[in-house]
């Protein structure tokens, strides 16, 4: 690792603090904020869920987010080199995080392709009356319909999916090649304000629809008895953990591009609370629209509630078709919102990998982008086959539920208990920040977060053995699901074998 990488004159930097905050918000605000969070709230106590959600945000989400800001800013490196400096034997943890991000990027871009396709399909409501059959059968051409029995029926490439996916890849590649300030920051300055405006328009339109109040009533009516259910608290910590882009290695890479004097804790608070606000707004818009759909269909709201890709690409097209006016405009607006949210996250996911590769192999940005996008692009072809939906769903479940959570747990244990550098990180944050993190930060990371993340892992494994995920065959869950996590771990071990001790001047510079 060359000490020149640490030189602020040669290393990429954000043009402004606002640019960094918008980019960090763009990474945190993704597809899950729109299609996952509303369902999680509904399923876990409605309005009462906000209590465990904000407890999780205060005791895990914000503390880890600010910790990663400190790590990246202090050492001015991507995750592998950063953890090497924390403890030489732990470089592999950074590579595992980068590997998880790489694996997520391989399928996330395909979902961006779906969004582009449905922007087009919104014109004239080309999905017809049976939106489920259109998305699953005609568009994705999923093996054996949506039945798990078709899991291993790979089939051929689906051109309707491949072409928009290639367009999405081209846009991501262009932004990454332009670098941090001229690419990622520029895109964030344009896309994030546009995303917020589009969401506000969607929410305002949704809450004025007939039946919207019924949907909001279902969403926010509190069930305080749910607070006694451990699964609700696990869901709250899981939502906060996944939605803030922590343990992806993203925030470590992003904060490494900050100037030497930056208010770290204030930036973390802005990003964390902005993400929570966006999720809350999205939940209002989604359930107002579902209330309208339920009223039009003559069924209870609970019968139209869905999450994930089904909500976005099956249920919402039904909402769009049922609108009394400007259907196509609303459809284009909704799927463009999904795309804008997704592409800022996609760029951040790959930037974490690119930063790590550049520092390890002393590559130019162009070469690193070519290698990373090229390899991810080849793997992403798996998800545009007839069985692609099954493989995407399986990899997403295992990488998020086990890869990210275990990596986050290892990160906290390393800093707080193994290397015992938590006080040093706190001093670095406080020396930079107007808002001091205080003892709550230390207590959360040393005690609360490790216990709860450990419980999440154990609880998840217990659930896995109790009931196979989505009824998929065991061979698929092991080979595609667990195999994807194991592959990232093996690659991390291989890449960390030839790690070199950091230069004294680099370590000294990082600890200033």
UniProtKB/TrEMBL annotation:
It is found in: Membrane. The keyword Cell membrane does not apply. GO terms for cellular component: plasma membrane. It is a multi-pass membrane protein. Pfam families: SNF. InterPro entries: Na/ntran_symport, SNS_sf. The chain crosses the membrane at residues 20-38, 50-72, 93-121, 157-176, 188-207, 230-257, 269-294, 332-357, 369-392, 398-419, 440-462, 474-495. GO terms for biological process: sodium ion transmembrane transport. Keywords: Membrane, Transmembrane, Transmembrane helix, Transport. SUPFAM superfamilies: SNF-like (SSF161070). This is Sodium-dependent transporter. It comes from uncultured Nocardioidaceae bacterium.
């Amino acid at each position: 690792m060359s000490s020149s990488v640490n030189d602020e004159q040669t290393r990429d930097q954000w043009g402004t603090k606002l640019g960094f905050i918008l980019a960090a918000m763009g990474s945190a605000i993704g597809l899950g904020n729109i299609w996952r969070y509303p369902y999680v709230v509904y399923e876990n106590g409605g309005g009462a869920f906000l209590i465990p959600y904000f407890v999780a945000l205060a005791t895990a989400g914000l503390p880890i987010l600010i910790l990663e800001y400190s790590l990246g800013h202090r050492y001015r490196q991507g995750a592998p080199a950063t953890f090497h400096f924390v403890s030489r034997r732990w470089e592999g943890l950074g590579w595992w995080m980068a590997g998880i991000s790489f694996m997520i990027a391989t399928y996330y871009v395909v979902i961006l392709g779906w969004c582009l396709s449905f922007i087009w399909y919104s014109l004239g409501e080309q999905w017809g009356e049976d939106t489920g059959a259109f998305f699953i059968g005609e568009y994705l051409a999923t093996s054996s319909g949506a039945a798990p029995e078709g899991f291993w029926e790979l089939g051929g490439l689906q051109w309707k999916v491949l072409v928009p996916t290639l367009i999405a890849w081209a846009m991501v590649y262009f932004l990454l090649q332009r670098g941090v300030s001229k690419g990622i920051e520029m895109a964030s300055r344009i896309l994030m304000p546009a995303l917020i405006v589009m969401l506000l328009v969607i929410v305002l339109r949704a809450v004025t629809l007939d039946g919207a109040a019924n949907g909001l009533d279902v969403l926010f009516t509190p069930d305080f008895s749910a607070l006694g259910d451990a699964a609700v608290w696990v869901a709250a910590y899981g939502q906060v953990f996944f939605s803030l882009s922590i343990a992806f290695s993203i925030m470590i890479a992003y904060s490494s591009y900050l100037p030497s004097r930056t208010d770290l804790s204030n930036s973390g608070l802005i990003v964390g609370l902005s993400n929570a606000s966006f999720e809350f707004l999205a939940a209002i818009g989604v359930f107002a629209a579902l209330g309208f759909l339920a009223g039009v269909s003559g069924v209870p709201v609970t019968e139209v509630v869905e999450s994930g890709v089904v909500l976005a690409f099956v249920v919402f097209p039904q909402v769009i078709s049922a609108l009394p006016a400007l259907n196509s405009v609303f459809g284009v607006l909704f799927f463009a919102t999904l795309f804008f949210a997704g592409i800022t996250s996609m760029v951040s996911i790959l930037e974490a990998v690119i930063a790590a590769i550049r520092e390890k192999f002393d590559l130019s940005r162009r070469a690193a982008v070519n290698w990373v996008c090229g390899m991810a692009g080849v793997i992403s072809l798996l998800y545009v086959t007839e069985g692609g939906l099954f493989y995407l769903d399986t990899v997403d479940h295992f990488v998020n539920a086990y890869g990210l959570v275990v990596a986050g747990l290892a990160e906290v244990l390393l800093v707080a208990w193994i290397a015992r550098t938590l006080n040093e990180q706190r001093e670095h944050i406080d020396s930079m920040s107007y808002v001091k993190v205080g003892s709550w930060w230390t207590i959360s990371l040393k005690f609360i977060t490790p216990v709860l993340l450990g419980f999440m892992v154990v609880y998840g494994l217990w659930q896995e053995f109790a009931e196979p995920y989505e009824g998929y065959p065991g061979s698929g869950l092991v080979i595609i699901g667990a195999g994807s996590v194991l592959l990232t771990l093996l690659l991390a071990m291989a890449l960390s074998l030839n790690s070199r001790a950091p230069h004294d001047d680099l370590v000294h510079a990082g600890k200033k």
